[in-house]
């Protein structure tokens, strides 16, 4: 679960960066779009990890 916590912190850092960029650049600027894609990618990785960890935990709890 420590991995999830680290990823949550990383997601927040990247989201803040995206929000800051929007203050300076147009929403269609390639830098904003690249950062948005980066946040999406990290969120996808986070969701896959969370699902894998919770899936493993659920199967352990189910066998008790």
TrEMBL record:
* Transmembrane parts of this sequence: none
Q: Which Gene3D superfamilies match?
A: Helix-loop-helix DNA-binding domain (4.10.280.10)
Return the InterPro entries for the record. Answer: HLH_DNA-bd_sf, Spo0E-like, Spo0E-like_sf
Q: What is the lineage of its organism?
A: Bacteria, Bacillati, Bacillota, Bacilli, Bacillales
Question: What name does this protein carry?
Answer: Aspartyl-phosphate phosphatase Spo0E family protein
Please provide an example of a Pfam family that matches this protein in its UniProt record: SpoOE-like
């Amino acid at each position: 679960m420590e991995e999830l916590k680290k990823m949550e912190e990383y997601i927040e850092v990247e989201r803040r960066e995206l929000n800051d960029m929007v203050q300076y650049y147009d929403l269609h600027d390639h830098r904003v779009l690249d950062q948005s894609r980066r946040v999406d990618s990290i969120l996808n990785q986070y969701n896959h990890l969370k699902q894998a960890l919770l899936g493993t935990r659920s199967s352990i709890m189910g066998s008790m």
